[in-house]
Specification:
With about 100 residues, the chain is an all-alpha fold. Helices cover about 85% and strands about 0% of the residues. About 0% of the residues are buried.
């Protein structure tokens, strides 16, 4: 391959790459527009599901913290609810 061929191939690669990037950007914008239109309802549903999952995770964390504290005399803290955990995070951030 000579320098001229390489230049032509490189230029075509840049053209196709730019075209593809534009298509991807357009697809993301379209998805974002759709998500925004549907977003509040779906986002609220997702948030409710995530909060429930977090609640289950906190139950497990609290249980293991209790078991480990019994085992090694540690002072790990468990949380009774997502709200309690969020309040602890706020206090930590403020400190």
């Amino acid at each position: 391959m000579n320098a001229q061929d390489l230049e032509v191939l490189t230029e075509r690669w840049h053209q196709h790459t730019n075209s593809l990037n534009g298509s991807i950007d357009d697809a993301f914008k379209s998805c974002q527009d759709h998500a925004y239109a549907v977003g509040y309802r779906r986002g609220r549903e997702d948030l409710i599901e995530l909060r429930a999952a977090l609640g289950e995770s906190l139950k497990l964390q609290s249980h293991y913290a209790e078991l480990l504290n019994m085992f090694d005399g540690g002072k790990r803290k468990g949380f009774a609810s997502v709200g309690e955990w969020l309040e602890a995070l706020k206090k930590e951030e403020a400190a």
